[in-house]
């Protein structure tokens, strides 16, 4: 089966992209109810960087550019609301 779209639950802040999953691995943190979270990408020196467990779909330039746009909009909103 070829998925055309994949939606992963998680969140982004100014420092990282965090994804949630039901699969436990050594680098993931339990948040209860059989759910785990992992830092998938971290923001450093003006860009999102991979970690050794980052899934290939999150390593793409297109995804990282999209996430940078979201981060920029989020940062502007934080400044506006402060």
What does it look like?
- Strand 1 and strand 2 (16-21) form a beta hairpin.
- The protein has one helix and five strands.
- Strands 1, 2, 3, 4 and 5 form a five-stranded antiparallel beta sheet that branches.
- The radius of gyration is 14 Å and the shape is globular.
- It is 26% helix and 33% strand.
- The chain has one helix spanning 61-81; strands at residues 10-12, 16-21, 29-32, 35-44, 47-50.
- By secondary structure, the protein is an alpha+beta fold.
Tags for this entry?
5-stranded antiparallel beta sheet; 82 residues; 1 helix
Output the radius of gyration: 14 Å
Helix content: 25-40%
Whole-number tally of structural domains: 1
**E-strand count:** 5
Largest sheet, if any?
Answer: 5 strands, antiparallel
Could you tell me how far the N terminus lies from the C terminus, measured between alpha carbons in angstroms?
46 Å
- The helix/strand order is EEEEEH
Residue stretches low in confidence (pLDDT < 50, at least 5 long) are: none
Helix segment count? 1
Shape: globular
Assign the structural class, choosing from mainly alpha, mainly beta, alpha/beta, alpha+beta, or little secondary structure. alpha+beta
What is the average per-residue confidence, as pLDDT, rounded to a whole number?
Answer: 95
- Give the DSSP E fraction (strand runs of 2 or more residues): 25-35%
How do the strands and helices of this protein lay out in sequence?
Elements (H helix, E strand, L loop, with lengths): L9 E3 L3 E6 L7 E4 L2 E10 L2 E4 L10 H21 L1
